[in-house]
Amino acid sequence: MEPLHTALGAIKVLRCSVGQVFSCLANGVRADHGEEGRDAKFLSELDELLSSVTQHLRDVEQAVNSLSQPPGPFTLGNTSFLSQECTQERQALYSQLVLSYKWTDKIHEFSNLSVALLSQNSLKRSYTNSSTAKRRRAPTSSHNVPPQNVDTVISSIDRQFPDMNISVSRPFGANAVLQVTLSRVLQAVVALKGLMIEWVVVKGYGETLDLWSESRHKVFRKITENSHAAMLHFSSPTMPELAVRSFMTWLHSFNTLFSDPCKRCGNHLHSALPPTWRDFRSLEPFHEECKH
Ligand SMILES: [Zn+2]
User: Which of 38, 92, 129, 158 could tie 166 with a disulfide, CB 3.0–4.6 Å?
Assistant: First the structure.
């Protein structure tokens, strides 16, 4: 590339000095040549310019001689067809194309430089971020827990609440589906993925229990909705067992659904519904309208 640049530079210089010759000829004898022997002065100036042209021509020849023959035709891909374009306004495409090639080259160069700079500069923040993410990701296998571990957790929760009966089935292979019966108040179906709660449906006692249909009763549809909020609230990838335990404790607190009054208004019914909300921490009952 370097000799080519030198050659192009030499051509530029040659063109410049040839231009000077012609401009000198065009101007002819000027006032600054004075009165005395102005023809001789003019001729000597021209002679000087011509000899510099000869000198520069020699430079060009030298530079061209040092160039090596390109190994073959340049592969320009489809762009070579642009030279066959005969519509005037489209001929400008080629120079635009060359410009964009230059831009891409520059971007390439700059990005290489910045990669080198950035790799020296060990951006601490993002590195710690990515490492904590990695550390967190390791126990995030809450969805990939062996079935016997799930069974152990569930049966310990089942023993914890005598009035809540939990039975485990696995209709979809490895993942457990819990059928929960809470005294004679409600029943629920909880779909797990490993130890992660994926879906909850709450229905009335005696309703057919499945994952896809909702309860006939507004009160249980409301509790289903709230249990989705609870499922998300308690969800913890790092402590999946605690998440399930907390959720089941929260669900268990509905055993007083039809007996406990609202913590705020003190009434049993509001808009013809019992307190369908349970506080995540205190498990206190509230009506939907009273929880805020
Ligand atoms: Zn209330």
Answer: 158
User: In degrees, to the nearest 5, what angle opens at C-alpha 135 toward C-alphas 133 and 139?
Assistant: 110
**Interval between CA 273 and ligand 1 midpoint (Å):** 10
Q: What CA–CA distance (Å, rounded) separates 143 from 26?
A: 89
Burial of 36 (0-12, 13-18, 19+ CB in 10 A): exposed
Give the β-pairing of 285-286 and 186-193: unpaired
pTM above 0.70, yes or no: no
User: pLDDT for 45-103, tens place per residue?
Assistant: 999 999 999 999 999 998 888 888 777 666 667 776 776 767 777 777 777 888 898 99
Helix (H) or strand (E) run with residue 286 in it: strand 285-286
Element (H, E) at 202: strand 196-204
Bridge partner residues of 187 (DSSP) = 181, 203
Cα separation, 55 vs 21, in Å, equals 13
Q: How far is the CA of 271 from the centre of ligand 1 (A)?
A: 10
What spacing in Å lies between the alpha carbon of 74 and ligand 1's midpoint? 83
